[in-house]
TrEMBL record:
EC number(s) reported in the record: 3.5.1.88
Gene3D superfamilies xrefs: Peptide deformylase
Coiled-coil region: none
GO molecular function: metal ion binding; peptide deformylase activity
Keyword Disulfide bond: no
Catalytic activity: N-terminal N-formyl-L-methionyl-[peptide] + H2O = N-terminal L-methionyl-[peptide] + formate
Organism: Arenibacter certesii
Enzyme type, top EC level: hydrolase
Record carries keyword RNA-binding: no
Lineage: superkingdom: Bacteria
Protein name per its UniProtKB record: Peptide deformylase
Length: 196
């Protein structure tokens, strides 16, 4: 089932999410709904807070990035078919050079900005079967994970922009929270006036 994506301005996007255990109600159904919702919006990642749930869960499928001809063959190969569920994730370490990349977010439609992040990360997480993993990623894979991880920490990519950029985006962000934006997927807007 395709769920509405929560828009910028909703308090759930600012909460530090809670861990879950394998008894979390209807987890398989929730994961199926998250995949459907993400693919319907042409996203490569979706975190539970983006569908209104303050839990430490996100999904990633970087396959669409694997077709980018600007990437090396090795990078394309790493991105193709990378589809994972991250539960109760904790970033252990971020290392390497910082590099900028133009990011966007399903909760902040029509806003894209360059964001600097470290090149490499090591993360611990549980998969959909609650098996524990500690893995290291770099490049674009690391970036997608960092972006989704930020969501479960109550952080948005716009938080990482300069004060000037934030000021320039303020009006657009306010309009998004009021529903004054065109999107081709279901959204829930926190400040949208209800029709009487």
């Amino acid at each position: 089932m395709i769920l509405p994506i929560v828009a910028y301005g909703d308090p759930v996007l600012r909460k530090v999410a809670e861990d879950i255990d394998k008894d979390y109600p209807n987890l398989d159904e929730l994961l199926a709904n998250m995949w459907d919702t993400m693919y319907n919006a042409f996203g490569v990642g979706l975190a539970a807070p983006q569908i209104g749930l303050p839990i430490r869960l996100f999904t990633i499928d970087t396959t669409p990035f694997s077709e980018d001809e600007d990437l090396s063959e090795e990078e394309q190969k790493a991105l193709k078919g990378f589809k994972k569920v991250f539960i109760n994730a904790k970033i252990v370490e971020e290392t390497g050079e910082e590099w900028a990349f133009n990011e966007g977010c399903l909760s902040i439609p029509d806003v894209r900005e360059d964001v600097s992040r470290k090149d490499t990360l090591t993360i611990t997480y549980l998969d959909a079967d609650f098996k524990s993993h500690t893995e290291t990623y770099e490049g674009l894979l690391a970036r997608v994970i960092q972006h989704e991880y930020d969501h479960i920490e109550g952080v948005l990519f716009t938080d990482k922009l300069s004060t000037l950029k934030k000021r320039l985006l303020k009006g657009r962000l306010t309009n998004i929270s009021k529903g004054k934006v065109k999107v081709d997927y279901r959204m829930r807007f926190p400040l949208q006036k209800k029709a009487r």
